[in-house]
Design goal:
By secondary structure, chain A is mostly beta strands. Chain A is 0% helix and 49% strand. In chain B, strands 1, 3, 4, 8, 9 and 10 form a 6-stranded mixed β-sheet that branches. A 4-stranded antiparallel β-sheet of chain B has the order 2-7-6-5, with no helix packed on it. Chain B starts with 9 loop residues before the first strand and ends with a strand. The chains are: A mainly beta, B mainly beta. Chains A and B meet through β4, β5, β9 and β10 of A and β3, β4, β8 and β9 of B.
Chain lengths: 113, 112
């Protein structure tokens, strides 16, 4: 089955550490996205990529970094510069030629301890 | 995950009744709208979409209504079932996927 896989499902990080969240899709989608979700708030865009080796900052990119070396993969690194990293992180992908919305992964819950 | 539902407006409906979830969107230039369903601990799932040249679209047990005059979107769920319990988000888009804006969501609780 085609889909989008995020790992791990739960992640704990000590203050001052960088952590990388994995996102892989086998849907042959061109575009991939990272969102952050906090209680009582809508999804906020961190980074997005429409093509390999290219990506753009979203609304809350500070303290995060991404790479897009392969079409299937779009890992997100939460750096120590991110002041409030505890959140639920969602990866999504989409085609660019039709209006069919996003396919989301199941999310990674990151907790700073 | 579970904490996504905290602090959200909540709609409680009896099993078998119809549900109506509302959303006010922000940009009059938005031309594509989507409703997503997010169950506890999972990512959002696409439910139904509508383009701005339509005012109504029906799916299986769901109907989306669009009122561009007042920038309002609604999702109607017929014969609500316990499995419909989730957080529902609307999303608006202006001519490109990188500019999707998500609403804060409404939590639907179905009472058996």
């Amino acid at each position: 089955d085609g889909g989008i896989t995020q790992s791990p499902k739960y992640l704990f990080r000590k203050e001052g550490q960088n952590v990388t969240l994995s996102c892989e899709q086998n849907l042959n989608h061109d575009a991939m996205y990272w969102y952050r979700q906090d209680p009582g708030q809508g999804l906020r865009l961190i980074y997005y990529s429409q093509i390999v080796n290219d990506f753009q900052k979203g609304d809350i990119a500070e303290g995060y970094s991404v790479s897009r070396e392969k079409k299937e993969s779009f890992p997100l690194t939460v750096t120590s510069a991110q002041k409030n990293p505890t959140a639920f992180y969602l990866c999504a992908s989409s085609r660019l030629d039709t209006d069919r919305g996003y396919t989301f992964g199941s999310g990674t819950r990151l907790t700073v301890v | 995950g579970e904490s996504v539902g905290l602090h959200l407006p909540t709609l409680s409906v009896q099993e078998g009744d119809n549900s109506i979830i509302n959303c006010a969107y922000s940009n009059s230039a938005s031309d594509y709208f989507i409703w997503y369903k997010q169950e506890s601990g999972k990512g959002p799932q696409f439910i139904i979409d509508i383009r701005s040249n339509m005012d109504k679209r029906q799916g299986q047990r769901v109907t989306v209504l669009l009122n561009k005059t007042v920038k309002h979107l609604s999702l109607q769920i017929a014969a609500t079932q316990p499995g419909d319990s989730a957080v529902y988000f609307c999303a608006e888009n202006i001519g490109g996927y990188q500019k999707v804006t998500f609403g804060t969501g409404t939590k639907l609780q179905v009472i058996p």
